[in-house]
User: Which sequence fits this backbone?
């Protein structure tokens, strides 16, 4: 297995099965630190640089919280408008990275352009973690989700997935790549116009993923061991924030996970994941049902980033 | 006395007299750390999460500075627009808190909605500190003010207060609740349209506060031992920032604390408090008079947050 | 030599020759910490307050990264709009500083107004570092540049400078003041309308700087040992960001450093500096030539801020 020390985390396309398990092993080892709520000294000599060109709450703060739990320091920017890099000069990724690499020891980057973290990694002398690149990938989120499955179900192999959402979204691509390394059939459920792009379908086929598509989550939820949901509707951004106040979009039944649907059709031991934030695709009354695992997923989001930071910074080898 | 460990700081309505003194005792104990300007290790294993849905300088930075002085770490957001929580999804307080609680060990929240920190506290497994909730309360500011009085006057009981400002503002409500636990009569001086809301007046009466109202600060300042001032005018926000440049509003005499007024009418040992920022209600030539204590108040703002963080995180018991 | 402990870094006009060398000596001593990428404990008990009223990436993050490398803590604001200080109240520098001084042990301030950090320093009981004040100065950047020259050339004295850019910019003023303390003739090359203001020319003459002006960098680059470049064009800010997308301004030949120009005219051991970000005044194909030193300059930007923070906080004496 390739060492994780000094390695970039850009895509799950190049992750091998034993590498997934190494990450989960380290996550399990570090999890008690998060659970005990006591920051330790493991990364005390290290600094994380956050480079967020798009707003983010969970991804940015989960990385920061993870770094702080391990005793490290954090600097960076949470909004490209706050920097000359993003707004004024349309500075090249190269120029920005040839600066950021001196400000710390690992960079986590979210960018509106697909491939931006990959380009950053070409220039940086320190590891780059992809915190979401446009319509590309979101590897740390899917690693979180797989770890949650492992913790909640005791295994990843042999489980059937249903994924509901906009298949152009980055989490879906990382998910497809990840499941090629496990014995996990998956059904993707997406609205018209939000289908999985051909290039990803071709990759999944070439990599041996067992996948198909369905139009209505109700038709396939009964077989699912893991149900992963993302929004399929968005606020109407052509209106101002005030204009759309209270006017929330409505998710069609095809893509909505109601308590009724779960009670009537889901396996009793299936688990329901959502990286949040949500619109109405999972109503709040689902939160306290037996299926909900998205709060655990949020906790694991910190644990997974602890594992990845410790690994790429060479603290676990 | 109830333990402070694990406790939320949401309102001063539920603070008992001996709890105020416990907080002041801890503040006095920790004050030398701030005065000596040497960060210590008391909260070294802990992380503060700042959740500011409205801009703030003093409240946010005083909490951050306090956490850093005690060796703790800080993460969070300073502006809801920087997060998907605030801007895009209008995410529920519940969903946001079920994420934030994993990112640290105590949350300080400022929100434009009254009661938002209280709702957060219902969902969080860690303490929530109210950093100001809309027209609600601002408990940590008033604890700072009371501690400043105690340090400057040697006592709280037996002092007569005059409070000038917009009585719909949150500091005024926390002040009224706090003084019910001390032997402190208070006169509120507010412009028409900015009177104390009935619900607070009813609470104050039920809780035995000795309070009345006046129209002109000049009529009542002569009896005051403590003069607490807030703005009664605001910039004209219907104009753009450039349009209103240099065009500062003018506070009427009724609510203005000039050097002349102090020299002619105030007790020589009265003290003048203002949480700042100010408009023109206290002109700068008052700053070096014997009455001014607002810089000490700013220093005590850090000390008080050190005490509160140490207490709710269980480091002082 | 005056002690640096407790001292403000506002201007290079008052820097003496032996003080420059003291700063470079400390920078060289601390440089291995940055190079080894291991945060140490030198400033572990100290907090840096960042007060950025204008967006900045490099200056703000280089100070933060430096403080974290030395084990210190950081708080503050990256955007005046995030604070009530900047946007709502147009709070005075005095009022803001009489607050910030309690939040940490050293302040770095960037402000759109010339002289703002100087005014801050008058009120603060802790050191203030000028992170760029309007059309005034940018002392820490030029200290970085001089340190880069010393590291790359082994000396500062005896080298001939050419500086290309907008001479109304703050870096140019700090550069002129700095070179008065060394044996360094300099030629300033600026477009019409961007000439060096008379007040600075008068200062430079009074202080014995050996300087002249030229219209075309091609005429003078052949003699240069150090070429320092800044942008002479800017995006058209009267257009929205979308409107100007892809429509980048073009730097006239007079002020542009192309690979051809360097190959044909520059000394083979000249070095090329740019504080970045850049427009097109240095095309990317120059980056891997023998002249380019701007990445080293970015690294030294952290080292220099480590030295300055350690010095003014009294950790090196």
Assistant:
């Amino acid at each position: 297995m390739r060492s994780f020390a000094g390695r970039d985390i850009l895509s799950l396309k190049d992750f091998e099965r034993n590498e997934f398990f190494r990450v989960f092993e380290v996550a399990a080892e570090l999890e008690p630190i998060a659970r005990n709520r006591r920051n330790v000294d493991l990364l005390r000599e290290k600094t994380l640089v956050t480079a967020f060109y798009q707003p983010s709450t969970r991804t940015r703060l989960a990385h920061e919280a993870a770094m702080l739990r391990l005793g490290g320091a954090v600097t960076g920017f949470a909004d490209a408008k706050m920097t000359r890099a993003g707004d004024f000069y349309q500075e090249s990724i190269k120029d920005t990275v040839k600066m950021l690499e001196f400000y710390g020891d690992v960079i986590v980057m979210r960018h509106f352009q697909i491939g931006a973290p990959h380009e950053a990694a070409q220039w940086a002398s320190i590891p780059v973690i992809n915190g979401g690149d446009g319509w590309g990938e979101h590897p740390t989120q899917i690693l979180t989700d797989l770890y949650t499955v492992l913790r909640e179900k005791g295994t990843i192999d042999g489980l059937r997935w249903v994924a509901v959402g906009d298949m152009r979204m980055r989490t879906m691509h990382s998910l497809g790549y990840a499941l090629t390394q496990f014995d996990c059939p998956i059904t993707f459920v997406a609205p018209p116009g939000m289908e999985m792009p051909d290039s990803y379908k071709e990759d999944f086929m070439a990599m041996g993923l067992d996948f198909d598509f369905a139009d209505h989550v109700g038709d396939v939820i009964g077989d699912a061991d893991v149900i992963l949901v993302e929004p399929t509707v968005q606020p109407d951004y052509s209106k101002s924030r005030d204009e759309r106040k209270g006017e929330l979009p409505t998710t069609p039944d095809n893509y909505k996970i109601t308590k009724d649907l779960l009670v009537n059709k889901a396996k009793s031991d299936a688990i329901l994941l959502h990286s949040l934030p949500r619109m109405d695709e999972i109503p709040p009354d689902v939160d306290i049902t037996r299926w909900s695992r998205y709060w655990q997923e949020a906790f694991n989001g910190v644990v997974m980033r602890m594992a990845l930071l410790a690994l790429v910074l060479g603290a676990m080898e």
